[in-house]
User: What shape does this take?
Amino acid sequence: MDLSTVLAALPFYQQDKAGNPAITSIENDHRLIQEGSIFICIKGFTFDGHEAAEEAVRKGAVAIVAERPITVSVPVIYVSETKRAMAHLAAHFYDYPTESFHLIGITGTNGKTTTSHLIEQILRANGETTGLIGTMYMKIGDETIETKNTTPESLTLQKTFSKMKRANVTSAVMEVSSHALQEGRTNGTAFKVAVFTNLTQDHLDFHKTMEEYRTAKGLLFARLGNVVHSDSLAFAVLNADDRASTVYKSMTAAHIVTYGIDNKADIKAKNIRLTSEGTAFTIDYPGGTVEVQSKLAGRFNVYNMLAAFAAGFVSKVRPETIQKALESVTGVAGRFEIVPNNQDISVIVDYAHTPDSLINVLQTVRPLTKGRVIAIAGCGGDRDKTKRPLMAQAACRYADEAIFTSDNPRSEDPKVILADMGAGVPDEQYTVIEDRKEAIFKAIEAAEPGDAVVIAGKGHETYQIIGKDVFHFDDREMAKEALLQKEGGQI
Assistant: This one.
């Protein structure tokens, strides 16, 4: 593909220096440049790609896409926003790969990861070759690839979709963050189904207000179903029990399918029975009912399973196949993950890092626990500060004992973060243990048979970010070590 063919994706641009070189790749990381690449200069939080343009040319870049004037020996394509241009260039260069398979996107504050894994299992049970993009990793068939963001940058995204196409993926599911939607990372991506889980407070450091946050998530639905083909209908799967769904209904041209527990819905859970062994419930859907016996615990997981059922249903998977797939899932790493032991102490590691998700986990644990519930909670640095006192309130209100500790403090002083949490519960009893390992050890040491220890915030993460350093840290490993120490070496 030559430069002029690649640039056909852009309606407006200015080219400095003539030339129409052959293009072998598109890159926004100058370290990945090879002979024949286009280099797209992206201005990030810590590094401006324009500063690497000359080095990119030395490494073999034959064209540069930029926002501001640069001096290099190859053609420079000037656009108003390189991030927006990158999404369109990437989709065009890789020949719009998402048009070749069935793509389901999931957005919402909580539940995206569990729901995406449930949907992937449903699709695999239906005989599909699947892809998955999410918080924990990306998957193409059985291959797992590490990822840094819930939703990758548009260039990485389209490269991944292209790999999925070459691997003959027939259906894929991806988590879609509000950041990604607002920044246009999914521009050029053809979703067939969009799923909304719920909307509660998070990311107000980025979106500033809940209304802005809600609107950002709504972009997934606003871009869905505007082009109608009889052989490829688009569906918006909405949570009937969340008020934001009313807004998203008005934003989308797609067909709407609702799910819920409390309000009227197309797909509804009834007769819910929550036990320490899991969850049983009935799903009413258009045309029938199925009984589900799941190993996933908690009312919040009923919502996740309903969302997954709805996504599978509109994707033309048989209800009986969906039912069996839901029942086959035993859990998702770091999501209400139980650390096994022989001491009659329930130790649960969960990714809960919002007030609502922490409340959900603690409310699930409470009726299943004979003794006390001990909650370990923290808040990340350089993130939404307004939720810190709310996290503290959730821990103190729904647990018998609350321990506040460090999460990923990043560039902030952990003491400041902990003080922000404490400000939300001035009259409550809680313990502050800054060192996360010490907090886990102290909680498990204090736990007695019949008690539950909930370690919240990091879930599947295997690291802790302090300053600019990344250290290995896994809540599950720490819990196992603490249990070993408590039992004198037995677990």
Q: What stands out?
A: The first helix runs from residue 3 to 6. The chain has a mean pLDDT of 93.
